Amino acid sequence: MTTDTPQPPAVDADHEASSAALKETSPAMQGEPEGIRELDFKLHVRMPDKLPSIPLYVSARTIVQDIRQAIFDVPDVNGFTCFYLTFEGKRLSEFTELGDIPGFSPDSEMVLCPEAYNDRELRVHLTRFREIFSNFGSGPTNAGVDQGSSYLRFVERREENGAQDGKGKGKTKSGTTGPDGIDAFEEYDFDCKSHNLLSDLIPKGAGDAEKVKPLKSLALSSWNPAPIERRGGGDLLYLRVVSLEGTIFHLTCSVSGFFINSSTDDVFDPEPRAGGKAYHEHNIAFCLSKASPLFAKAYSRLLQKVQSRNPLEYLASTAAAYPWAVRPRGHTADESRALDAHLQFADQAEGFGSHDWNEELQSTRELPQTTPQETVLRDQALYRVHAEFVEAATKGAVAVMNGNALALNPGEPGSQMFLHNNIFYSLGYDNREAFEHLGGEAAAHVAVSKDVDGCKLVADQEIPDLYTLGTVVVDYMGQRVVAQTVIPGILRRPENADPLVKYGSVDMGQEIASDPAFHTLAETMAGALNLAEHVVRDGKGDEHKLYTSLETKGIVGLDNRKYFLDLYRITPVDAEFLDETAVKEDNKTAAEMPYPHQLPLLRPELLKSFYESKLRAAFDEANPRATTEAETKKSAESGVEKEEPPKTDGNATETPDTEATPESAAEKPKELVIPEINITWNTDAYTRANANSATAAADVAQIRELSTFLRTDALNRLVRECLYNNPPIDGETLVRRFHARGVNMRYLGKVVKLAEDLTKNAESKSSRVPSQYFLRLCRQEMISRGAKHVLRSLLKETPSYLMRYCVARFLSCLFADEETELAPFQAHALYNRIAVDKYAFTTITPKIIHERVRREVACRFQFTDLPENFWTERSLPLLRSVCLKVGLQVEATDYFATGPPSSPDQKQHAPRFEPHHIISHYPIAKHHDPRATLAEQALEAAHAAAADPSQPAGLAIELHGEACAVYEQVCGPVHPATARAYTGLAMAYHRAEDTERALAAERKAVVVGERVLGVDSEEVLGWYMNLAYFEYLTGRKLLTKAEGSPKLEKERKERSAGFGKALKLMRHAVREWEKVCGGDRNLEGASTDGNISQMLADLGQLPLAVRFLERALETQQQILGNAANPTVLTSQEALVRLQLQQGNFHAAVAAQKRVCELLRAVLPATDERAKMAEQLLNVITTRAVDEAKIKAAASSNNSANGKKIKQQIVAQKAAAASGSTNTTKAAAAAAGGRQEQPPSIDQLLEFIGEKPAKASSKKAAGRAKKNGK
Questions:
Q1: 472-522 residue pLDDT tens
Q2: Quick check: 465 and 562 in contact, CB under 8 A?
Q3: Distance of CA 1236 to CAs 136, 383, 500, 1182, 1233, Å?
Q4: For the chain, how long is the longest CA-to-CA vector?
Q5: CA distance 109 to 41
Q6: Which residue pairs, CB below 8 angstroms and at least 24 apart, start in 1152-1157?
Q7: Which of 76, 440, 532, 892 could, after both became Cys, cross-link 680 (CB 3.0–4.6 A)?
């Protein structure tokens, strides 16, 4: 459902297609009116006070509540928040579907009717008014600055600001990028000197406060709260307003609306102001507009600004991310902030303790899913409850750490538990000494995180009658807090009640429960997760059969639901790693340092990969003929120019239709045998619980096989993929890549060693040397993780009011040389009464921090070969990684532009980071969102349709649109999954050559991605580059339409504007990309350089285009090697064309020689492509020789030969202009025939299939000439 406000053209079509698909799959639609069953339609909602009606796109399945929310979100309704909807004079229930309303048709109209206010509705209305008042700026209760920011609108309209390209504070010569952005790369620094600068990270204007102020002041009146007799009369709140005219008046907020009363600052008179000047209105904006003409004018301007923004920029979302580098905001006097705080805290206080989180989560899981629409509604309800729970749990965890929550056991410091807002909190410590034999606190720290993963894994199976707790793990101030929903009856149980635990053990196996009902339920879960039934013995020696691990507990609540808790050991342990790092009898280890704990668990992705490998092996064994045919086909299809990853068996076994015969088609189903394999894992294997089992040896052997598979197959495939293909760009992407392949991050050290061995082997064999970027990134990730643990240990002992001092001191030591002597720590004079020196961070030095980081890396990753000065390599990416992992926001300033500053006495260095550089520390919550089942299925089907050439082109678009619609309905438009669905839809449109719709969908992906993934996330920067490319294609399309048009000049200006916007977007993406990459080059950067070169060439900026393409080619050759490669060959051919376009024939000859060398290496001399390349080389060489002769002759002014050659040049240009020469003659010359005149540049370009370039304007040609100096 969308509004009819200005939207990208793709939006309405997406929703229509997806909604229609949803309706057609629902049998419940058969009983609805025929007129509204087929397609979406436009519904008009009539507004009060003669306001224009609001058009909304809806479907028969739309409920009234969704329509109400859409009206609430539309900024041009002037803030109507308290209302109800009617149809034919009857009030509609909010949960009624349009298809169920009697007499409703696509031509029907709803009416918005004002509703009476209460305290809650008044807070909602005033909050919305204040949001519009601040143009939806950050609220006062956020844990950080600029949460959920998007920079796109500032990038598209901004001028280049500050510290550009490492030239001090240098700007371009003109001081801007030009009015249309054409000069975005004019003074680009190819040495990437600015990759360590932070001051130009944020676009100009981003984060600035709104400058349009409709009022001088809006605050709570001193006459609050309303007297009891006035509350009985309907008064809810009093406000004090100072208008732009300087008039002070007091506003009454009543159940019927807003009016100006007769009170002053000294006299209380709540009656409406006399003389008809009370201006009683249901909307506060209307009331103030009548009272203050200047307010009406300024508020109108503000509404225009709000309406011009993309709603995705400010829609509320619980998934919004915090940027790690921000600009500090100046703090000014504003009485309205107190009103904001009052509204928000009053709303929180009213809802505090009103939720039974466990009941809400479990009851939504029980909602029916018999139809697609029921599934969507169920997923939507579950996601909303889960998001609210995560938000409440995070706030409660901060309250626990700040001492604002009362403990249930205050007499037990260190193992306290809390019940806050009906959520149970415990610290991630080894409270019951359950992990003492596994590593104590370190093992407990990991177990609570793995418990979240286990809850997600079990909940995704959707097993009836099996329940898990809502669980969130929050990291804040160095502590790990576990927040869980409360099982009914678990906190208060009668003394004679039955044992709480029905399955598993709570005392490490001394007493074990194995209730038959739970065992049957666990059997269902075991079938989905490949868990083996195994025997364990309790302290008395009695045997019990379990499917889950001993630590997993089954509990029946007073609601008669069966819950499984402590699911951290839902996967087996890593046996090989445990043996490698175990402490021996002589207190030595097989590894370099002992691992912190003995709970190294395998990932579910690895188990899935292992299962699939076993299934493939069984299939190959059962179908040897099919396997042979697949290998033959794979060999036949692999060409000399293809360097792709090995295809999967599913693709390899497909046979082209042209080769299939009726006999083979009939025989194939009979030959193929689908094997059945039964692989299960005993999660208690390799633990003390399995020590006395009769199958212990077999269980351990099976677990060891899993571990061996990880260390050989999975690791090798991961390393080769990252070395020889596109490596991850930043630490976050690296983690996702590891986890997707089933590899734990503890293998970072081993991955680096494997990669180094592959590199050495490649160098010794003089073969392709893999990318070094991956090695540097892995080292950086180990360092940042080690630094994270060191900083957490310091924060754990530090009170929150000294957090900024602790973090600043740590970062200063981390990024300083070991011999550097930093100035001693000095706290503010305000802390003189507090013993600050007792905290550990006050005595740290660079040497101490570096040693601790090295020790953490050696301990956790078994890696000791860090660079000597590791803190100087990739300093800015390392700072970014530490901030994102710990939850820090720092000031965006240039920390690494120079060395550390010196103190006045020159003997000691002042810290690089000061406390004021640390803006905030926000909590990091780990949880897993519920699945949007239908959206995932639609995306999977869309990918399959896009990969199948036999499917219609529109099918992938339709399926992507359906996925977007479902994600919007379930998770909301501002969510990571929705953003990825948007970009998938954009690429589907791009493949269908619908550039305008691709541009609209990609713009949505960029805005949402910035808000939820981070403004400099690798994914978001890639989407920025896609958006720039789509803008570029749109500009080219404009020029194509304009050919032959009498308005050609106007169309060219629009084309240049589109190109300028594309270059601005690309410039921003490249700047952020270089900072994330630390200035290192990679294949993604080379691809970007190629795209930039193409854009600049179309604008006539040929010298600059050549430089970008040469850098792309250099990067590709460094990573891919000098051997023949299709990527290198394509870039080399593009370089030839660019050199010809700018008339540099000598450079074109050198580039074409390289093309011929690459082709000779892979193609026979008789190949048509190789012959054409040699012919073109001859043509270009001839032209280069002629040009050299002309220049040599022209240098002699008195030479008769020189004059003759000049005359030939004039004649040649005239002939080229009149079209007397043609490509046929050029081809004849290329074939070896003589020609009186050498081919012109345009003829050469036509010969190689390239259109001659035309500068967009004289100004573009002038810039190209200047760039060529």
A1: 999 999 999 999 999 998 887 777 777 889 999 988 888 899 999 999 999
A2: yes
A3: 71, 77, 101, 12, 10
A4: 121
A5: 12
A6: 1152/1176, 1152/1177, 1152/1180, 1153/1177, 1155/1129
A7: 532
